[in-house]
Amino acid sequence: MSLDFDSLKKIPTSYASCSLGSPSNPPPLLPRLDAISSAGFAAIELSFPDILSYGATLLGHDPSPKDYDELTKVAAAIKSECDKRNLGIMMLQPFSNFEGWKDGALNADGVEGRSDAFERARGWIRIMKAAGTDMLQVGSSDTPLEKLDLSRVVPDLQQLSDMLKEHGFKVAYENWCWSTHAPDWKDVWRIVKDVDRDNIGLCLDTFQTAGGEWADPTTESGLREDVSKIELIERFQQSLDDLKFTVPKEKIYLLQISDAYMVPEPLSKEPDESGLHPKGRWSHDFRPLPYNGGYLPVVDVATAVLRTGFRGWFSYEVFDGGPDGKGRDVDLVEYAKAAKNVHMRLLSECAGKKFPLTHDHGTRVTDRT
C-alpha cells in the first residue's frame, strides 16, 4: 500500500546550520540563515561549531568552548537572528562522546572523560535555554572501547535525560555508523528502550543507516563486502522491515537526510591521525543532497521511517565537499532551494511517484563558475 502524499506534504522541514557551503571552510553564519529561510525551511539544527564561529564575529575573539557565559550570549544572538528570518531552532547538535566513560579514562583533550561529559551537558543545557530549543542531539560515542564501560551507557543516558527533563528538554539519540559501541539503528533503539525515559527518542539518518549497514567507503565497490551482494540486499531490506514494524512513531524525533558519494579511492581501514574512523572521514566531506551524484538507497530508508507513521521533522544535514571531497564553490541560496526541491521529490518517490531521469525538478546543484 502506497503512502498518502497529501499527508507527507505536511512534514516540517529543517536544515542543519553547518550543512551549507564547504564543510572544511564554511561561509559566515548569517548568509547561510538567509539562504535557509529564503528556501522555505521552517527551522535549523544549530551546530555547536557555528556558535563558536559566530561568537568570534560577535565578541571579537574566539570564545572558549567551555565559557558558557559567553556561549549563551552568542546562542541568544543567533536565536534573535533566526527570529528575524522566521526560523525556529529545532535542535542543538552534535553532543558527542558522552556516554559510558570509565573512571579515570582521558578524552582526546587529556581531560577525565566522565567528568568532562557531564560538565559539557550542564553547559549545553544553558545554551539550549538561550537558543530557545528543547532538543539535544547525542551521537553514539566513538570513544575507543578500552576507555568505555558499556554497563554505564544506559545509566549515563538516564541521568542526562533526567537533567534535560528538569527544563522540559529531550534527547535525540543517533547512531553514528563509526561508533565503537552503537553503530546501527537497532543498537541505539535497544539503548533507548533500556533507558526507559519519556524524553529520549531516536534521531534517525539516511546516511548513518545506509552508510553503516549497506555501504563501505573502504572497498572498491563502495558496498560492504563481508557478505555476498544478494545477502547484503536481503539483510538491509530485513533491517528496514524491522525498523518500520518495531519502532513506534512517537519515539522517532527526526529523520536527517543526506546521500553519499562513492569515494574516488577506497579509504584506509585504519583511523586517521586524529583517531577518526574511515566512515567518520567519509561523513565529513562526502555527503551531498539526494539526487546529486550519491549512491545510497535514501528513498528506501526514508520510506521505511515513514511507514512507522512518523510525520515529524525531515532535516537536511549534508557535508558536500564534492565527489573528490576537496570542497565546492556553490551559491548558498541556490543550494538551499535545491534542498527544498529535493525534499518534495523525495517525498513523492516515497509515495511511489517516479520521476523521469531527464528531469531533475530543480534538485541538481551546480558549482559556480
From TrEMBL:
Question: Record's Pfam families?
Answer: AP_endonuc_2 (PF01261)
Isomerase as a keyword of this entry, yes or no, is yes
User: Which of UniProt's keywords are assigned here?
Assistant: Isomerase
Q: Which GO terms describe its molecular function?
A: isomerase activity
The UniProt record lists the keyword Isomerase: yes
According to the entry, every stretch annotated as the Xylose isomerase-like TIM barrel domain falls at: 33-323
Q: What is this protein called?
A: Xylose isomerase-like protein
Record the organism.
Periconia macrospinosa
